[in-house]
Amino acid sequence: MASTYSTNLKIELIGTGDQVGSWGTTTNVNLGTALEEAIIGYGTPQFTNDANLTISLASSNASQTARKIFLYVTSTVSLTAQRDLIVPTNEKTFIVHNNTTGSQAIQVKTSAGTGIVVPSGKKMLLYVNGTNVIEQVDYVTTLGVGTLNITSLASPLPIASGGTGASTASNARTNLGLGSIATQASNNVSITGGSISGITDLAVADGGTGASDAGTARNNLDVPSKTGSGATGTWNISITGNAATVTNGVTTGNIGTYAPGLTGSGASGTWGINISGNAATATSATTATTATTATTATTANNVSGIVAIANGGTGTNSTTFANLQSNVSGVLPIANGGTGSSTATFSGANLTSLNASSISSGTLALDRGGTGAGDASSARTNLGLGSLATLSSVGTSQIDNSAVTPGKLSQPFTTGTAAATTSGTSVDITGIPSWARKITVILNAVSTNGSSDLLIQIGDSGGIETTGYATTLTWCVFNTNLQSTALFTSGWAVAIQNNASYLVSGLLTLCNVSGDVWIGSGSCNQQTIAMNTFAGSKTLSTTLDRIRITTANGTDTFDSGSINIMYQ
Asked: Do residues 421 and 549 touch, judged by C-beta distance below 8 A?
């Protein structure tokens, strides 16, 4: 009786009496491959073109992607729209991680049924019910969330559920009953209409009046009253030196009685002002606006004697300017606006400072802090400056080839810091400088606890890139004629069909051809079993700054050795 296969997982069901002497092998494959894949298997379906992708499950207990519970979905091309990942209708659970290129969602569905959309970069727990793909979990009684990221809702979250019930900021403020002041900054508030109550009078020190009525405000600010038409009377102000005193009992309370009004046409009266010291007297001004009868101190016939310079005069009664030579005797010192010299030649002893306006001709010598030149080129020559002095940066075109030697370079060849490969599923080396154009990856007795292929991957500021490689690996098994070659798109494979007991040592040399295109080749000794050679290329999105060693399945753990790099 021939074997049959289970409906959903395609487990081989041995016919009665069949496979005498070999049924144990079939059972081991059922348990160790088929069932294990359905429980913990890690599948890597890949979109190789910008179209839908179908994975199927055949009647075989051999390893199959569609049987594995975790599907890590990638693409070798950038998807331009949402694409379908079509899975078998067999009843089965899938955990799907959309890691395709192009930032597009994928829909996981059966060929004739409906499906579930998995956004770019997200993971979802799904179930095939024999017809359609559905979400396996859609309700929990209690959920603790560290950071909640809601990417889409069918409609705005209502206020009753903690939302705003709106999809725009303006409508949200309206729904929440917020007024126009809600959008203003605390340091720039504009109030139109209405009134403000319940506030304390703003103090004078803070730019206010310290009062809530006009009279108190004027009093606080020491301002005379500006209203009224009867502000007439006599002001008697005696000023001696810089001391001004009011001698007629004028106060802030009765200033309206004595001061002519500042408004209206009836501001008349007599101002009596007595000034002692400079003999200026003005006692007959009748109005503030017409000074036809005012005697002022600015007319020459009201001033007797000569007003000294110290009192704001010129110290002379001549209309000839005081700075003419005929009016000056002796040497006017620098402190009084002169030069301290009677000759045209300046001397350092007579000057405490010098600026450009002080020099009308000639040049300032080197020994006096100048350049001794009247133009930039001659100044550089006098100062002993070379041709590099006028450059903002120095490139190779300014340096003779014969002058550049490795010994003159600050870092002719740089060795990184070795990283142990004794734990984890991957080891990264970061911080590679942007000027590096040749990088050698060094593997020293590296091993893992599994049999997955060893991979070298490169990346940039956006992270390690796991797709888009075009590499090959050829291995020769020791003491046999066995030789084989394999192609890889997820990195440079440096060891294939690995074993936990193998120690891998060797080199991968990466060279930057142009832009962000990298070519790599090298060889490794897979201890006691094979010699591997490998080569290929990879184009990054931007400047390379990191390298990773990992395994093809992403789950084997490193347990020995180290990795390092050298670059130039």
From this structure: yes
Domain count, the chain: 3
H or E element, residue 507: strand 504-514
How many C-beta neighbours within 10 Å does residue 166 have? Answer: 17
- Residue 252 within a domain: yes
User: Rounded to an integer, what distance in angstroms lies between the CA atom of residue 443 and that of residue 349?
Assistant: 76
Please list, residue by residue across 311-325, b when 16 or more beta carbons sit within 10 angstroms of its beta carbon and e when fewer do: eeeeeeeeeeeeeee
Give the tokens for residue 124.
């979802």
**421/563 same-domain check:** yes
C-alpha 440/C-alpha 564 separation (Å) is: 8
174 membership: H or E segment, kind and range: helix 169-175
**Residues 133 and 243 grouped into a single domain:** no
Clarify whether residues 239 and 129 are in a common domain. no
1 and 119 part of one domain = yes
Residue 264 confidence (pLDDT): 40
Question: Quick check: 495 and 502 in contact, CB under 8 A?
Answer: yes
Domain with 471 in it = 414-567
Q: Are 503 and 445 in contact (CB under 8 A)?
A: yes
pLDDT of residue 135: 96
Helices and strands (DSSP H and E) totals, the chain: 6, 30
Alpha-carbon separation of residue 389 from 366, 394, 526 (angstroms): 19, 10, 57
Of 137, 166, 184, the last residue of a domain is: 137
Print burial letters for 126-155: b (CB count within 10 Å at least 16), e (below 16).
bbbeeeebeeeeeeeeeeeeeeeeeeeeee
If asked whether residues 239 and 126 sit together in one domain, one would say no
Residue 478 located in a structural domain: yes
Mark whether 262 and 129 lie in a shared domain: no
Are both 419 and 542 inside the same structural domain?
yes
Give the residue among 421, 424, 433, 516 at the shortest CA–CA distance from 468: 516
pLDDT at 285: 37
Helix (H, G, I), strand (E, B) or coil at 457: strand
Q: Is residue 71 part of a domain?
A: yes
Residue that is last in its domain, among 137, 158, 193: 137
What pLDDT score was predicted for residue 514?
A: 95
218 domain-assigned: no
Q: What is the C-alpha to C-alpha distance for residues 352 and 341, in angstroms, rounded to an integer?
A: 13
pLDDT at residue 292, as a whole number: 37
Domain at 420, CATH number:
2.60.120
pLDDT of residue 208: 85
Low-confidence spans in the chain with pLDDT less than 50: 226-239, 241-252, 255-256, 258-300, 302, 320-322, 346-351, 407
- Write a three-state SS string for 299-321: CHHHCCCCCCHHHCCCCCCCCCC
CA–CA distance, 53 with 87 (Å, rounded to integer): 9
- E strands, 403-466, are 414-415, 419-420, 426-430, 438-448, 454-460, 463-464
Can you give the pLDDT at residue 394? 64
Q: How many CA atoms within 13 Å lie on the side-chain side of 88? A: 19
Q: Running DSSP on this structure, what letter comes out for residue 413?
A: S
Query: Which pLDDT score, from 0 to 100, does residue 46 have?
Result: 98
Q: What is the pLDDT of residue 317?
A: 67
Q: Is the same domain home to 1 and 133? A: yes
How many degrees, rounded to 5, is the angle at CA 109 between CA 89 and CA 136?
85
